[in-house]
What we know:
Oligomer: single chain
Shape: elongated
Strand order of the largest sheet: 3-2-1-4
Number of strands: 4
Number of helices: 1
Helix content: 10-25%
Structural class: alpha+beta
Radius of gyration: 13 Å
Amino acid sequence: MNYIIGVDLGGTQLRVGLADETGTLHASQRAPTEAHTGPNAIIARMVELIGLVRGQAPADATLLGIGIGAPGP
C-alpha cells in the first residue's frame, strides 16, 4: 500500500502523521516547536518525528512523499 507523511509546522506544536492512500491515519507524533531553539533544532526535531512515524509503516509500504505545511508567505 502507498503511504504519505504530513508535517504541520505550527508556532507552538510540530505534528507529523502517516496516512495511507485512502486518508486513514496510521501513526502520529507531536512535539513542542520551541521556536527559540532556532531553525536547525526545529528541522532536527521534524526529521526525528518523521522517522518515528515512518518506522510505524508496514515493511512493504511505499512512501509516496512528505508534505510540510508552515505559516507565513
